[in-house]
Amino acid sequence: MTPTCHEPGSYQAWIAVSGLPEGKEPFKDIMRRVRKAVGGNDKSASHAMRVAGTENFKVKYASGYPVVTILETHPGRIMSAEQLEALGLVAPPEPIKTTVQALRPRTRGDVERSWPDYQRCLTGAPPATKHEGPDQSMADFFWCMLAAQRGWSIEEAAAELLKVSGNAQDRARRGDEGYSLITAQNAAAAATRGRREGRG
Question: What are the strands of the beta sheet with 2-7, ordered from one edge?
Fold first, then answer.
């Protein structure tokens, strides 16, 4: 280690080290860790040095430039990275920064804007009174009510009902084109009443 004084109150210390890892980044990493361990306060140091015996030409010293002076030297003393670590002169490596893309959690809005499963509504409908099988009108109504609860408008639910319900399609073919809209309106009203009663 060779300490030098290159201006009043300011010092540099140079260490000869062998066996350092090859490559620019590994070298810079070990140098950063040494500076950190010894309390070096100039994190932007460029590894440049002032030659002993030369003057430090800075404007603030214009009246009398200080001369760079060697305070102490130990010729032939060469350290290894392992020796520096053993002496506590190498700080632990900094943790590697990694970028992790977090998965966006499902929100209530995501669920509300999905369409209900019409087949499940049909399967859960009560039996029809005039024919065998489930009551398709009740399935349509329940489906529209779920759609209203999930944030779909009456018009959107009516249009989608025509796509998923065979009953609504059959009624439209027979001239009952208002069936889907009326069913969606009644279902939306029932959903609103349910919310109010739930809050009450």
Answer: 10-14, 2-7, 69-70
pTM (global) more than 0.70: no
- Region for residue 70 given its phi and psi (left: phi exceeds 0; alpha: psi -120 to 50; beta: otherwise): beta
Q: Does domain 108-199 have CATH number 1.10.1240?
A: yes
Which band of pLDDT confidence, cut at 50, 70 and 90, is reported for residue 199? low
What is the domain partition of the chain in residue ranges? 2-86, 108-199
Half-sphere exposure at residue 147, Cβ-oriented, CA atoms within 13 angstroms: 28
Can you tell me the distance from the alpha carbon of 148 to that of 158, in angstroms, rounded to the nearest whole number? Answer: 11
Predicted confidence (pLDDT) per residue in 7-40, tens digit? 666 777 777 778 776 777 777 777 788 778 777 6
Residue 38 identity (one-letter amino acid): V
**Residue recorded with tokens 């760079």:** 68
